[in-house]
Amino acid sequence: MTVILITATGLLYYFSPGRMEAAAEGKGVITGVVKDENGAPLRGVNVVCEGSSVTTNDKGEFSFEGLSEGRHLIKAYKQGYMIGVKDVEVEKDGKASVEIFMKRVKRRIVVATDGTGDYNCDGVNDEYEINAAIESLSRIGGGTVHLKEGNYIIDGSVVLAHNIIFEGEGQDRTYIKLKDWNNREYWGLFVLDRVSNVTVKDFTLDGNKHRQRVSKGIDSDIDGFRTSWSHDIVIQRVKLMNLWTDGFQFVHSDDCVVEDSSVIQAGHDGFMLIYCEKIKVINSYVYASGTGNAGIRLYECSFCLVERNYFNVYGFGILINPQGGVPCGNNVYKYNIMYGNYRDTPAIAIYARGTPIENELFIGNIIVRSVYHGVRLLATEEGGSSIKNVTFINNVIYGAKRSGIILEGKTKSITNILVKNCIIANNGEYGIYGKVTSIYNNVWNNGKGNYEGGAKPGVGDISVDPLFADPTRGDFHLKSEAGRWDPNQKRWVKDSVTSPCIDAGDPSSDFSKEPEPNGGRINMGAYGNTGEASKSLKE
């Protein structure tokens, strides 16, 4: 089995996992007996230790000799039974004995810390029992691994297999943590390699970042989830925290979904997608203070959906950064809230480096107080760098330190950029900079001017105070005398004024999702054509 390693800088390495070197020979001995759950000895069990295997006799007995000092993992296999697993300590030239009990296999296997599971964990190398449960189900075509409430400590990867449901009892109840001072580099805590039809849900995974000694920081590549060459993966309600590098990483994978999940304090990217198609990241939360490179990063990816997420890290919100020559495009980004929190990282970066980017669509996103530009499109001078057919509809770009939208680099290779029904306001430099088609936007109160660098007002553009409800607290609903949705009170309220952005969007745009009275026309801004669109004074 080949595993792909991706460094924080995007370089790919390949290796085949296994022991880095053979265990030193010694004089240690492990003897044991394998029994069924009723205590009867099991004959013909294949028992494996350190790459060697033996078969139990009529009394269920086995032995291994010539073992080095230290801990040894023993696994027992027999058709119709769950895999038996024991971690055995052998002292120098010493002997150890062990009993292994094997239960009949079933489609739902319970792992616990309180002694009530089919497998029971003791807080030492709990990945052994967890992986045994997964492997047992894999041998019969799949099933469910259920982790009961409790704290699990792992010292190696949890390796998922085809047709597995892997579930905890909730983010606040099932807690998996990396062992203190594991110190290993270049690996993932959860690994999905060439697998399909997997569901993972309802637990917290803690990378224990601050109790690891690693030499390269984020470049040590310690990730939460590493998914490669896989498809039909669903991850729901999983919380990742305290990771040196990436949260969820997908490579050469397709038809995967992460929803209702979170990544807290990852050192690099919350989500990293490389050479993927049809990945969906929905209703998830990425936050990192003083660290983090991007909320989500896409390399050469197509037909992905990034919807209703919150990205607030010490870097980019969304980074589209192909550089391998494979076209990137046809991705959709909808209703996300994001920031750019570093001196040269915009909230949305569309960077073509020797690679074309095409047909990207941004709808209903809110970009708040980026310390650089709100949106930056950059085509480098390398051959093959181009950006075309990028569309921004009903977005809000507010309070960026520099420009709202800017085109830079080899700008002749940046073509057909459309901005429509957006509100671009209170940015420190320009509202729109570069040759952009602007129609039915409100571009207002930008420090150095609303349009520059070839940009100019288009059909339907206005420049007036949009009258947001409370932009300092992140509420970009439009004030309305007819009714405005208040997300804090969870009800409709009425204002003493009405925003000029109501009923001001493109007359040809769909407005059917706006509540009545809607004036028969879409609103500008992030809530246009949604159920939270401010109501119109017109019927």
In brief:
This protein is mainly β and 539 residues long. Helix content is 2%, strand content 46%.
Overall 3D geometry? elongated
Mean pLDDT: 95
Question: Into which percentage range does the β-strand content fall?
Answer: over 45%
Number of helices: 1
CATH topology of the domain at 105-292: the name is: Pectate Lyase C-like
- The structure class reads mainly beta
Pick out the low-confidence regions: 1-24
Distance between the termini: 64 Å
CATH architecture of the domain at 105-292: 3 Solenoid
C-alpha Rg (nearest Å): 28 Å
**What would you give as the CATH superfamily of the domain at 105-292?**
Single-stranded right-handed beta-helix, Pectin lyase-like
Total number of beta strands: 50
Major sheet summary line: 25 strands, parallel
Instruction: State the share of residues found in helices, binned by percent.
Output: under 10%
Assigned CATH class of the domain at 105-292 = Mainly Beta
